[in-house]
Design a protein that fits this description.
One of its GO terms (molecular function) is transmembrane transporter activity. The protein is mostly helical. 73% of the residues lie in helices and 0% in strands. It folds into two domains: 184 residues, MFS general substrate transporter like domains (Growth Hormone, Chain: A, Up-down Bundle); 206 residues, Growth Hormone, Chain: A.
């Protein structure tokens, strides 16, 4: 594929192009890179075959999440400028190559190649792929931006539901020695390259004058949070609104990812001292339910935000999330259904937070460089990806060393999460409309029109006087 085919100018949609083809294009990328949530499938065979510790086998995943945030932050402006086809192509090349390099690393028993491939190269593919469709979807769906981004980002949450059984089946078929793991990773690399290429081929950007049938851009919004101005990525990070949302996202993600990362041992520990302890099989089923809640929450809550507003839906994520953690801390091991219901809701808020944030950014900063702004905001995810598991694991380990068991291992973690969610709630309350001084100047023709209008109004006022 030559560079010319990747240029933004080559993918402007012709008249009559259906905007409903764009969410499947975005999903083809997000369902693929969502495999990151299924990395744990590779951990046991890698630990056994290459004689790795649990900490070592987590390194490729941890580096991938760090690179996701960094590549999204530093590549966001380039993605905006070069367009979604270029971004999806780069994502597909990096993510697929990451698996192929990892396969070579397993084959040659060089663990550093696995870290380099899956963690560094694949992580760049994660970050560029994650933000690649965001601004395009918002431009195609200005009437329903929350729903549009929710559909795509739902794919990232649901990618593990496909990847986990697929990877397990291949490891069963090819074996869990170095040859079998390497073959499985190589098939992943080739398979995802083909699947992601569908999005590269299908994606289009709307013509500059395109708008949905019957929809008119509002000159003013009943919701004061929705701007009619445009803010650049450079100016956005100079506003208090950006940093308030950074805190909001970091707190919401920390509260969710801490549970998600330790879900199976957590439910087993929680009910270990009851008459009916949780089996390993049941714990695995619980993890699958949490992944489903994470995925469904992304589309349900982001679509709800189109109706009730972004600020209100984040009040739900953060306020109700704090109350759910309080419920878990107070109820202890008295009710397994309550524990499951509360954690499912928490994970739906976790997923919903990811899916709603692009639309929140669009409301505050406009569509001009919303993808680049989103990329910079995802550094909050990198921080939360380290902070959440660290809080839950470190506190549980210290409580176990102190001789505690059952819910007592996690109560302090839950109290910490409540505090973080309260901080996030306050940050959300502090979000106000962006000051017009940060807006980009209007195009020359609109500026001339405004000046002419002001001059006419001045003459009319003078005549009346």
């Amino acid at each position: 594929m030559g560079p010319g085919l990747l240029d933004r100018s080559r993918i402007v949609a012709p008249p009559g192009w259906s905007r409903w083809l764009i969410p499947p294009a975005a999903l083809s990328v997000h369902l693929a890179i969502g495999q990151a949530y299924a990395w744990s499938v590779f951990k046991p065979p890698l630990e056994e075959t290459l004689d790795l510790s649990g900490t070592q086998s987590a390194l490729p995943f941890q580096l991938a999440i760090v690179m996701l945030g960094l590549s999204a932050a530093f590549g966001g402006t380039l993605v905006e400028r070069r367009g979604p086809r270029w971004a999806m192509f780069v994502s597909a090349v990096c993510f697929s190559s990451g698996f192929l390099i990892s396969a070579l690393g397993v084959w040659t028993e060089q663990f550093w190649l696995i870290v380099l491939g899956y963690g560094f190269v694949g992580g760049i593919g994660l970050g560029i792929g994650y933000i690649s469709p965001v601004s395009t979807l918002i431009k195609w769906f200005p009437d329903r931006p929350g729903m549009a981004t929710g559909i795509a980002i739902m794919g990232f949450g649901g990618g593990a539901l496909i990847a986990s059984p697929w990877s397990s089946e291949m490891l069963d078929a090819f074996g869990t020695d170095t040859g079998g793991i390497a073959t499985t990773m190589a098939v992943h690399g080739a398979g995802y390259a083909v699947f992601m290429s569908l999005g590269v081929w299908l994606v289009r950007v709307p013509a500059p004058d395109w708008r949905p049938a019957g929809w008119e851009p509002p000159t003013a919004s009943a919701d004061r949070m929705v701007t009619t101005g445009q803010v650049s990525a450079r100016n956005a990070i100079r506003t208090p609104q950006f940093w308030c949302l950074w805190i909001v996202l970091c707190c919401n993600v920390t509260a969710g990812i801490g549970v998600l990362e330790k879900a199976a041992p957590m439910i087993q520990d929680f009910f270990a001292d009851t008459g009916a302890p949780v089996t390993a099989t049941a714990a695995a089923g619980f993890v699958a339910l949490l992944s489903l809640a994470n995925m469904v929450g992304r589309i349900v809550w982001s679509s709800t935000s189109d109706l009730v507003g972004r600020k209100n839906v984040y009040r739900l994520y953060l306020g109700a999330g704090a109350l759910l953690y309080l419920t878990l801390a107070l109820a202890g091991d008295t009710s397994r259904p309550l524990f499951i219901a509360a954690t499912l809701l928490l994970l739906s808020f976790y997923g919903g937070g990811f899916a709603t944030i692009p639309a929140y950014l669009k409301d505050l900063f406009g569509t001009y460089q919303v993808g680049a702004i989103h990329g910079r905001l995802l550094t909050a995810w990198s921080v939360a990806g380290v902070l959440g598991p660290l809080i839950v694991n470190a506190i549980a380990d210290s409580q176990e060393e102190a001789g505690r068991s059952g819910p007592d291992l996690y109560v302090l973690s839950f109290v910490t999460m409540i505090a973080l969610l309260v901080v996030g709630f306050i940050a959300n309350e502090l979000v106000r409309p962006v000051n017009a001084k940060h807006h980009e100047p209007p195009p020359p023709e609109r500026q001339a029109e405004r000046e002419g209008q002001a001059e006419r109004e001045g003459h009319e006022g003078a005549a009346r006087r």
